[in-house]
Structure formats: C-alpha cells, structure tokens
Design a protein that fits this description.
It is built from 6 helices and 7 strands; from the N terminus they run βαβαβββββαααα. With about 170 residues, the chain is an alpha+beta fold. The strands form 2 sheets. It has a 5-stranded mixed β-sheet with strand order 2-3-4-5-6.
C-alpha cells in the first residue's frame, strides 16, 4: 500500500500487482472540481484498489470522501456538503469491451499505452456525485417566500385594480 499518489501509472501492471494507493490530497489540487465548487478548502481522502475479479475483469475500486463547499440554490449561501464515492470501475481497452463488464461495474476506458492518471479518476468520480441542484439540508425557505400564499388586507384593493378583473366579470 502506498500513501503517495503517482501522477500516472500503468493500469495493467497495477492490476497484475494488485496495487493499492491510499492517502489524501487538497481539494485545490483538483482544478475541474474546484470550478464546480464555491471554495477549494478541505482534503480528499482516497483509496484506489486495482485487481482482477473471478470473471477475469480488470478493475479499480475507487473510494473517496471529501467535504465540498457548494452554494445552496435555496438560500444562495455556501455550505459544506460531505460526499462519498464507492465505485468499481472496469478497465477496458476499447468501447465495445463495455458490454462484457459485470453488472454494477462502470467502464473506464484506458489509453492505448495503458497510462492512467489516478488523480483524474478520483476527480471524475467526485464530479459525478455532485448534485445538479445543491441544497443545504439544514436550510429553510425565507419567510417572505413562505407567506406569499397568505391573504393580506392590501390584496383586496390590488384585485380591484387588476385590469383583468373586468374580464372576470364578463365571464360570469
């Protein structure tokens, strides 16, 4: 087991050796991920396990956890969203090999030379678990939004001044 993450590895040699990499890296080191976040604070803890299953499928298990700072789309305020990744990626050489992967195994197309960038794999998996519309589970709607449906004393005069009130009367 290694605590340092190399810039690139030979995927097929890692599978043959059943190598594992474990450690942490700053969120700021993942540029594409930072582009989707409100802040680059925090650390990503990860573990990559290369291997071959009983069906002969080469894989890498990706485990990662990170506190990611996002903007709540309900309150428009930043909040920390803890995310966890726990996926098995089947290593394939050609796109048509995807059909041979077992259920629950996502495809990962490896370059012809076998080079794989572990940090990119971790970053891709973190990007895939980000919510489309991030909402802080501890947030609530502002009172001004919640009270919109309640009738107020001034609403009656607004209805009388409504230019479509005449059409409503004609409809009766």
């Amino acid at each position: 087991m290694s605590v340092t993450l190399p810039e690139s590895v030979d995927a097929w040699r890692m599978v043959s050796a059943r190598r594992s990499f474990e450690g942490s890296m700053p969120v700021a080191a993942l540029e594409r991920l930072c582009g989707a976040l409100a802040g680059s604070e925090g650390e990503v803890s990860f573990r990559l396990d290369f291997g071959r299953d009983e069906l002969g499928t080469d894989y890498v298990d990706v485990h990662a956890q990170a506190p990611l700072t996002m903007i709540c789309q309900r309150t428009l305020e930043p909040f920390v969203l803890p995310v966890t990744v726990d996926n098995r990626l089947g290593l394939i050489r050609r796109e048509r090999d995807e059909a041979g992967l077992p259920p629950g195994c996502e495809p990962l197309l490896v370059a012809e030379d076998g080079r794989l960038h572990p940090a990119d794999v971790i970053e891709d998996e973190l990007l895939l678990v980000l919510p489309l519309v991030p909402v802080n589970p501890d947030s609530s709607l502002p009172d001004a939004v919640i009270d919109r449906g309640a009738a107020r004393p001034g609403d009656v005069t607004e209805q009388e001044n409504n230019p479509f009130a005449v059409l409503r009367e004609l409809k009766k």
